[in-house]
Every structure is written in C-alpha cells, then in structure tokens.
Specification:
alpha+beta; 7 strands
C-alpha cells in the first residue's frame, strides 16, 4: 500500500496564481488522457476474466482461477464490510454483473490544520486518480451515505465496494495489465482510502511532482474563498524532471 508524501514549499501570492492556473490545465489534460486510455483498454479489463461464473454474465463459461479469486474477494470484503459500512459479511454468488467501464476520480484526502480553529481541508490531487469499475455508487455518493448526507442504499454500497476490490484483484492476478499501464507512463499503486474504512483502491498517477504550501498559506486561501478545499500544485520543473521508466529499464536491462 502506498502512502502520500507531499512536500511543502513556500511561495508568494503571484507564484501561487501562476502555478495554480498551470496546474488546472495540467490536471484537466491528465484526467482526459487517462479516461481516453481506460476507454481504449476496456476490453482487457473484463471482470469475468477474474471471477468467471461467480458474477452474472451472458457467458457462463468457467474461468481458471476464479475459485481462488472469489475466495480472496470474500476475504477482503469481510475484512471491511462491517466497519464503517455495516454490511453483511457474506457474499452470495453469483454476484450482480460488473460493468467493465472504468471510471476515474481525482484523489481527495483531508488535511487537518492545527490551531484554535482546527479544521479539515479537502485536498485534491491534480496527478493522482482513483480508478474503479463503474457503479451506481461513485466515491462521492459512497462518502455521502457514510456521513449521513445521503440515505443509505445497502445494495449500492455493497456493489461499489465489490467494484473497487475486484479491480484491485484483477491487477494482482493479471500483472501484465499493470505493466501495460506503466508503459503508458502511469504509476499504479493500491491506496487505502482512510475515510472509507481503508478500502483498498487502485490509484493511477502521472509521475509529476507536486507540493503544498505551508498550512498558514492554505488557511489564508481557504478563508478568502470560504471553501475548505485546496489543490496540490504541480512543481514548476515537474515536466522537465518527470522520470522515464523505459529509459531507466534500458539503462539497467538486467535489473
């Protein structure tokens, strides 16, 4: 499981405005690029390749390794379904059909700034995306159900968790898919979503370095905007210094 290590860098208001505008453009480009790639690769990510007859499908052909994959899915689901989701532990096959449409959502996490009026700021990453099989319950809706902002829909919550866990397992069982994504200059990690009971999820990143300014600067910006949200900033030299995996492999082909 990967951890986020975001460096802190001082900057003034003018630098912030310039880098924020550039970051917005880069983030928009990266998000569309990833969605286009996931759409093209969609036929390679068929859930039935992993779970076979354990999910509903037009094809009822047995799939090698599906027994093991379903047992792993059941184990992962049981480990987190009760807290905080309050769902029954047992999965009853065949599971509802899983769409092989892949959706990506910018990674968001909370930053707590200490002080007399300590509060949590929602930070959005411009270069990291959570990827899952599409379901009726995307991350924002799942979070809303847990927080009480939206009525709980048990089946939708259950299916959303299964969609995330199934994609994690697919990449573990078919590592060449991860290699293919890495050849497209993505970094693929499994990230535990802390506000969702450490739900394991696939995180796909473009290896551009980002940073956050000091807490005081973030506080001032969020107070001015009135919105407790901030975005990581892409470093000025991030594009020039972006690592090239193929280049590294060619320099050390036996490594």
């Amino acid at each position: 499981m990967t951890e986020l290590n975001i460096p802190r860098t001082d900057l003034d208001s003018q630098e912030f405005l310039e880098l924020r505008q550039a970051t917005d453009k880069i983030s928009s480009f990266l998000g569309q690029r990833l969605r286009d790639h996931l759409s093209t690769l969609r036929p390679l990510f068929i859930p039935r390749k992993l779970l076979g007859t354990y999910i509903k499908s037009a094809s009822q052909q047995e799939t090698h390794g599906s027994d093991k994959a379903f047992a792993e899915l059941q184990e992962s689901f049981s480990a987190l379904c009760e807290s905080p989701f309050q769902l029954p532990r047992k999965l009853q096959p065949p599971l509802p059909a899983i769409s092989n449409v892949l959706e990506c959502t910018p990674l968001q996490y909370e930053l707590t700034i200490d002080g007399s009026d300590a509060k949590a700021i929602t930070i959005t990453s411009p270069t990291r995306f959570i990827v899952s099989y599409q379901s009726e319950c995307p991350l924002d809706r799942l979070r809303g159900m847990l927080s009480g902002k939206e009525a709980r829909q048990t089946e939708d919550m259950r299916q959303a968790i299964i969609c995330h866990l199934s994609l994690v397992l697919l990449l573990e069982h078919f590592p060449n898919l991860k290699t293919l994504l890495e050849d497209l200059r993505y970094q693929v990690d499994i990230y535990k979503l802390p506000d969702l009971g450490n739900l394991p999820a696939v995180m796909i990143s473009t290896p551009l370095s980002t940073f956050l300014p000091p807490d005081k600067f973030i506080t001032e910006v969020t107070q001015l905007s009135g919105i407790p949200a901030f975005q990581e900033i892409v470093s000025r030299d991030a594009i020039d210094n972006m690592p090239d995996l193929l280049q590294q492999q060619l320099r050390n082909p036996a490594g």
